[in-house]
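Let us practice reading a record.
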Amino acid sequence: MSRLQNRDHTQGSLFSSLLTLALPLVATSLCGGVIFQLVDLKLISGLGDQSVTAVVVTNQSLRQLFFMFVMGGSFGAQSLIARASGEADSEAADHVAGQTFLLGFWFSIFVGLLGLFFAQEMLGMMNVSAQVLEIGVPYVRLVFALSFGFIFMNLFNAVLNGAGDTTTPLLITIVSTVTSLLAEWALIYGHLGLPELGIQGVALGVSVGQLGSIGLMAYVLFGGNGRIHIRRRHMHADWALLRQLSKLAWPPSVQLIGGFVVTVFFIRFMGDFGEKAQAAYSIGLRLSMLAPMICFPLAGAVATLVGQALGAGNVPRAWRAIGIGLIVHVTIMWSLALLLFWFRLPLLQMFTNDPQVIEIGESMLGWQSASFVILAFSFVFFRALQGAGDMLVPMIMSLFASVILTIPLGLYLTYELEMGPQGLFLAQFISALASALMTGSWLATGRWTRIRLQTHGSSA
């Protein structure tokens, strides 16, 4: 375990470093993402299609907007910490980590207040039925009010990933996942002597697991036994470094928000075809996340290797990290795409027995499987660029593909050509192809290898 946590990723076998970083990341995603999502969806499905819609719409659209800002901040922090670690400057890495959590604390307060006061307005924007709105508003309030656990867990993972330790986040994720699902099961249906809270038990159960994880995270970060050791001085606001973090965070946040905007519009468009179509899209959205949840962490490992290689001044190693990352990522992502395509029907039947919901969902998952073939490349492309600190150009390209291309094309195919939901699915596939081609072309120029990052703030 110690060898995994303390391996020097600036030298030695890149393949070994990739596996050392990626295997715990994949396991973390499997446990905290795939397994959690499937069991969570199964628990929620016992409450009926309207509850499923309320939960999925909240988590995959409303909360997703704020998740994009958290992810943008985590990408920026990972890039800076990877660069500092490559330079063997542990004080700078610790200082970046402290400022990252300071930003996360402020942001969690903002998100909590927003959910408490505007839950009904936010859920109402999603074109859900009156029944879903009635069920979902209390759930939205709880999810947003308790968002601090979700925010800190994501930032913690990014901080340690940038430093080259992906094993510790895995161990904490296992504890959080088991605790959260057990608490959900008990609170949703009233087991273990606890009250039966229905959909509100979903939010409370997840928070129980996250609260326990925050205690473990604090022990790791402040205990001084890991790669990152935050001290009191690192938590004092360093405005120069906070500006640097914000400068790196906002482009990937906006890039991810572009995808979020498409999801929001498509959920609304699916509402035009009826409640069953929207339920199919909600379930399909969750199931189609399974392959990216497994493979996206591999791209995150490439980002760490690229950032640390550039910090050590070894540009050829950064290029080789991308090549090895592509070989591994494409192999796994294509295999999962085939599995999702072949088994999309039984997967859907696990969560619904409505023929119309299954028919639409089966078509959606077929197109999503085809998109994974393209995303196998684009995930590595844009995460490698972000690991190097190149955030702006990938954002512009992604926004063009997601917002400027996908939404108008989806409207045209769906309504003008009368393709119905099929038009939305085809538009998303074309967008993925355009994004991969543009991002790959920019990566090939090599300009990202010349970016300089400031890892020291005024007090570092």
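A brief commentary: The two ends are 30 Å apart (CA to CA).
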